[in-house]
Specification:
alpha/beta, Rossmann fold, DNA polymerase, domain 1, 9 helices
Length: about 220
């Protein structure tokens, strides 16, 4: 069936943000006197919000909560100065957004990135396109895979969840789409593997962004 709207994840789906995220977090770790991690490792660390990112990179058991709070604070500070240094849309994303726009397909963004940075990234790195809703993580809204944010966006667009294609690149995204009753499509250019996406409920996988057009 053709879907009437597309809800996008941000990091790893629309934007390649991995280097800015890893550079910022490694700079915070260096200030704490803790070794950083290679870029590739961050593909598994990111996707579930800033707090979970720090829990993963600190790798402490039990975790020092004061260290966690300080790590979050430092990473947020570093990212505020780096978020747009290397981040950019993935190849094929501009073409996909152009073609969806020409077809009049409503688009929205839902991310576990802190809302302030989600808004900045969309406003400045995806400024050529209109999104009906842009939502990042806030203290009031449960993080994905809780479906409430996705359902609120569907209500804002006035489109039934079952008529929305959800495009994301992690297990969290696929679980969110399934829980919200949306059509889960896994982006293979992002941070995680095909096996993870399928195991988490992906109904289809796409190797390039414009393959999404087959569903709308």
């Amino acid at each position: 069936m053709p879907y009437q709207a597309v809800l996008f994840d941000l990091d790893g789906t629309l934007l390649d943000t991995l280097e800015d995220l890893s550079d910022s977090t490694n700079a915070a770790l260096a200030e704490l006197g803790i070794p950083g991690h290679p870029l590739e490792a961050y593909k598994q660390f990111v996707g579930d919000g800033l707090e979970n990112l720090l829990r993963r990179v600190l790798r402490q058991e039990p975790l020092d909560e004061a260290l966690l709070v300080r790590g979050i604070e430092l990473t947020r500070r570093e990212y505020a100065g780096r978020w747009a240094k290397k981040s950019k849309p993935y190849p094929g994303i501009p073409d996909l957004l152009d073609r969806l726009s020409r077809q009049g397909i409503p688009m929205a963004v839902f991310s576990n990135k802190p809302d302030e940075f989600t808004q900045l990234c969309v406003t400045q790195l995806l400024s050529g396109w209109h999104f009906e809703a842009v939502q990042g993580a806030t203290s009031e809204l449960p993080r994905k895979p809780d479906p409430r944010g996705a359902l609120a966006i569907a209500a804002q667009m006035g489109i039934a969840p079952g008529k929305i294609l959800y495009l994301g690149d992690t297990n969290t995204d696929m679980q969110t789409a399934v829980a919200a009753g949306m059509f889960p499509v896994g982006a293979l250019w992002g941070f995680r593997t095909a096996d993870e996406l399928l195991a988490s409920g992906a109904a289809s996988l796409v190797k390039t962004p414009t393959e999404v057009l087959d569903w709308v």
